[in-house]
Write a structure and sequence with these properties.
about 575 residues, mainly beta, Immunoglobulin-like, six-stranded mixed beta sheet, about 35% strand, Cu-oxidase-like_N, repeat, metal-binding, EC 1.10.3.2, lignin degradation
């Protein structure tokens, strides 16, 4: 394939002792040679799938739902050839991959590339540099990711184990999702037309299976087998479209060891909360003498929305071998005690436990000095109803969403291409507000005027700028949490709290020693979160709410990071097969 578009990793040596200590762990993992090129082919096609006794034609990769698992090792080059056999446009995002200097492989339509049109193809070609752990891939056009998603597992370099006790085995990754009986493209298109909130999903799923709590779905139950008295590595991914989720396994305690492909100081929990876009690695230690042959795994929503939501619970089954739990009837297993759907305190307590390892091998390189201080308000708003129609949003308006009251307008061409060619006129404006244009009591009584402004605006940053970004939730149309995902970077979560951010007193409580490093963080309901990152990756990088309904309403923006002075600090040229708009 020629020279890879991503950076290559130089590799590192390990001592014999470290190798031997890690070897037992690596024996349980797929055998790959470091630094190789991994080739995958995605044939994107319509496939008939039945759930809840409803059969419909959905977009799939290679006819699979969910899509195929991609496995690489840190330092590998990944080449994915995508062939679009659908009538829909499509593009793919490799969620959490940093794509150093290589935004052409990042995937969000009209940001880093034009979408792949029906009958077209594109090769995503990138190197996985300095990352290991659980990430995932998904479509990044309209709501197509509801069906087009799969795991992306990055194994450590050969000779490097995990910085936690070795697991006996690795279980298959679990991806949480949503199933709609309706056509999701019709759902969001109708909502955007009427101004109302979109229809909600009909079920949550474990790896595409809803399970026995739903109509006609006992046969579509995800099951995983374990042995007594063993410790397993379990990878969780929330690929749900619009819902944060609680997760638990009845009568089992879980140990969290990784978040968003970054190791964390291990901590135990009986209930987890995971936002769309986030991943977690867990150690699951099974009972040496289980009191039951099977236990329920369950997910249920966390939300404070004032609108309707899918308030159901999906169940999967943890089966102990050699007993066949199915013979005992596992449709009525006791559920794990998950928090109430609006239990914000449970979420805050769980979120506060995450800490980076901050060791010599896995340092927390949080910027200590800050060049740019940015405050973004994040929340909902409204648009006036066009004079020739009746709208079904709040008080006859249309729902909208914004950052600093700017609702992002999708451009007609890809921003990254415009930036590379320095052709900005008519495409983007470099005047995204870095402070709220109209300050108010963000978590108190909302202002009378909730209309948003619209524009394709970016925040330009000089290369190597250190940024502190405070994301402040608002109460407009109701306070709720917003999982914000940043493309092209990880960030450090240095502080969070409820109410309005206090720039005088809150920074004194920042954690600058071992803050967790993530690519997706939820702005607390009625609160704020502060993150820091170093803008050392040139390109145009989207940041957006990972609730796709809010993304559709405009809750996104982009960072435009300029080239640095050295050749190694400049964007790579675009590939020859980059799709055209």
């Amino acid at each position: 394939m020629g020279t890879p578009r991503g950076l290559r990793n130089a590799g590192s040596s390990s001592s014999a002792c470290r190798f031997l200590a890690a070897f037992a762990v690596l024996l349980t993992l797929p055998t790959l040679t470091a630094g190789l090129t991994r080739h995958y082919t995605f044939n994107v096609q319509m496939t008939n799938v039945t759930r809840l006794c409803v059969t419909k034609s959905i977009p799939t990769v290679n006819g699979q739902f969910p899509g195929p698992k991609l496995v690489v090792r840190e330092g590998d080059r990944l080449v994915v050839k995508v062939h679009n056999h659908m009538n829909y446009n499509v593009s793919f995002h490799w969620h959490g991959i940093l794509q150093l200097r290589n935004g052409w492989a990042d995937g969000p339509s009209y940001i880093t590339q034009c979408p792949i049109q029906g009958g077209g193809s594109y090769v995503y070609d990138f190197t996985v540099t300095g990352q290991r752990g659980t990430l995932w891939w998904h479509a990044h056009f309209s709501w197509l990711r509801v069906h087009l998603y799969g795991p992306l597992v990055i194994l450590p370099k050969r000779g490097e184990g995990f910085p936690f006790p070795r697991p006996y085995k690795e279980l298959p990754p679990i991806m949480f999702g949503e199933w709609f009986n309706a056509d999701t493209e019709a759902v969001i298109n109708q909502a955007l037309q009427t101004g109302a909130g979109p229809n909600i999903s009909d079920a949550y799923t474990f790896n595409g299976l809803p399970g026995p709590t739903y109509n006609c779905s006992s046969k579509d139950t995800y099951k995983v087998k374990v042995q007594p008295g063993r410790t397993y590595l379990l990878r969780l991914i929330n690929s749900a479209l619009n819902d944060e989720l609680f997760f638990g396994i009845a009568n089992h305690t879980l140990t969290v060891v990784e978040a968003d492909a970054n190791y964390v100081k291990p901590f135990t929990a009986k209930t987890l909360v995971i936002s769309p876009g986030q991943t977690m690695n867990l150690l699951l230690t099974t009972a040496p003498n289980p009191g039951s042959p099977a236990y329920a795994m369950a997910i249920a929503p966390y939300t404070n929305t004032q609108g309707t939501f899918d308030n159901t619970t999906a169940v999967a089954v943890l089966e102990y071998a050699p007993t066949r739990a199915s013979a005992t009837g596992n449709n009525n297993l006791p559920l794990p005690p998950l928090p109430r759907y609006n239990d914000t305190n449970a979420v805050a307590n769980f979120s506060s436990k995450f800490r980076s390892l901050a060791t010599a091998r896995y340092p927390a390189r949080v910027p200590r000095a800050v060049d740019r201080h940015v405050l973004f308000t994040v929340g909902l708003g409204t648009d006036p109803c066009p004079s020739n129609q009746t709208c079904q949003g709040p008080n006859g308006t249309k729902f909208a969403a914004s950052i600093n009251n700017n609702s992002f307008v999708r451009p007609r061409v890809a921003l990254l291409e415009a930036h590379y060619q320095r052709r900005y006129a008519g495409v983007l404006m470099a005047n995204f507000p870095t402070a709220p244009p109209h300050p108010f009591n963000y978590t108190g009584t909302p202002p009378n005027n909730t209309f948003v402004t619209h524009g394709t605006r970016v925040v330009p940053l000089a290369f190597n700028t250190s940024v502190e970004l405070v994301l402040q939730g608002t109460s407009i149309q109701g306070a709720e949490s917003h999982p914000l995902h940043m493309h092209g970077f990880n960030f450090f979560v240095v502080g969070q709290g409820f109410g309005n951010y206090d720039p005088v007193n809150d920074p004194a409580n920042y954690n600058l020693v071992d803050p967790v490093e993530r690519n997706t963080v939820s702005v607390p309901t009625g609160g704020w979160v502060a993150v820091r990152f170093l803008a050392d990756n040139p390109g145009v990088w989207l940041m957006h709410c990972h609730f796709d309904v809010h993304l559709s309403w405009g809750l996104s923006m982009a960072w435009l990071v300029n080239d640095g002075p050295l050749p190694s600090q400049k964007m790579l040229p675009p590939p020859s097969d980059l799709p055209k708009c």
